């Protein structure tokens, strides 16, 4: 009689344990063990428990191939989360079988030993058949659907309740998510009540009346400095939308700025033409906003603009705005606003640029270019790669919670009756049109930071902390991924011959990113470098890029005049007609301001169960060489952390959004 020693690890989150029956069968190349009920004296499979059992077999099983787990209902249904199983054969070495899955209902699950293997490395017909069955089951479970035309396709789930348990929030996350939203909305409802639901604010200082508990050091700094031109420029570099700015080599024809107009903003002994040639003139162009349908809130039309903003890298003052036009077509009714104009006119022009910034960063830089892009990788990975595949193991930590948060976004934020419809000027039809426009011009190049910075001509901009930190993180991620790829693929030929990998890239390019002829991503992977870059894009986007656009949104939007979610009056056409009354009638009203503050706090706050970049709570890789690469990656991230902290030491306005310890491993909010 052969006796095998097992340990079975139960999940650590709430309700991971079970009181149902758990059976195990060991499957080897020479046969199967007895089907064994796992039952020790006392309670088994409690939350966080690691229980030990003996399993017998009348004859040697040979090399172990699979561990078959079965859950059967006892009295009431009680789901179980299994982390892993270890098996120690008679006289052999302990083997680890990662699971990290929920067993829901009366179900059988077969798990493999943890060594990552591509299809070509599996010599056992049993294991090849197991891979095939696993993928067939996953493709039935995870299906593509078109939520709306003209944007990336997504998971087929009308609400988060339709998702499989394996990709749902854990109970603590779900409770915190729902509680924090209710908390923020309740607090701001009390503020509205205290302010007696006034339709408009009386003056700019009135916005301080909603600065109660929900506040942050940067938000308070913003409240003090938001009118200053240097602070406007700083946000173009290091705010929530740091990918918009581009070098201006020639003044656009539809933006007829002359040298005389901006001479008073120039440093001594220079002019606009000289600075254009020197590479010190930059542009924000919100052409994508032109003609977008606007929202109607409580029967009142809202307004948008499509500004052009010229900026100058001043040798003493830093990056400052020097000219703003609020529409794409120049003319008598679209004046060019300048810093020497009446102060309120210049201030309102900057507000209109920041209002466009809110739309673009929330819907394009944040929602489309991180959430929806990463969802394509999520769905394709779950559909086309078995759990034993090295690329599945590499990506799994970066898929956590993304499908559920995206489902919630579609039903709660951007739906026909969602929060954007209630308070945002592009809510309703406008947000979808805006996303569709951006999706048409989305390129694979623009998702690679090293190329994106070069294409935008911003590689020399000083104090562009987002660029500096992004490139450090990109290099670390790309180096880590390349090491992993070279570990499991000895040549480019190995990449080409991996049928599961090729099915994965086809799912991404043909099913996920549909109708994008100019995207620039091929439907076949030919080299290890191509694969490494693609995986680095997926990981960078789900970690650093999402952190850069999401984590500071409360900081930059809490002081509502700095980044207003909507505008209630049309853009000004006469500089001399701008008054404080006009500004207050234009900015979001009390109710809209309160919701903006609540939602950006809810979505931008640090998550209590966050797993930082490079930390892996689930140990999918068991091989020593892979673990060494992970350790090296963590060491490099620690060096980046130390560099960023040292760089920010003593700065009054610190840029810490890309500290590795503050970047989540996946898009969870």
TrEMBL record:
Binding locations of Fe cation: 366, 371, 546, 669
GO cellular component, one term: cytoplasm
InterPro entries: LipOase, LipOase_C, LipOase_C_sf, LipOase_CS, LipOase_mml, PLAT/LH2_dom, PLAT/LH2_dom_sf, PLAT_LOX_verte
Main localisation: cytoplasm
Binding of Ca(2+) 2, residues: 39-40
Record's cofactor remark: Binds 1 Fe cation per subunit.
GO process annotations (BP): lipid oxidation
Transmembrane is among the record's keywords: no
SMART domains, sorted: LH2
Residues binding Ca(2+) 1, per UniProt: 17, 78
UniProt site positions, description: Essential for stabilizing binding to COTL1: 102
Subcellular location: Cytoplasm
Domain PLAT: 2-117
Pfam families: Lipoxygenase (PF00305), PLAT (PF01477)
Cofactors: Fe cation
Pathway: Lipid metabolism
Entry keyword set: Calcium, Cytoplasm, Dioxygenase, Iron, Lipid metabolism, Metal-binding, Oxidoreductase
A GO molecular-function annotation: iron ion binding
The keyword Calcium belongs to this UniProt entry's keyword annotation: yes
Start and end residues of each Lipoxygenase domain: 117-669
Assigned protein family: Belongs to the lipoxygenase family.
Protein name: Arachidonate 12-lipoxygenase
Gene behind this protein: alox12
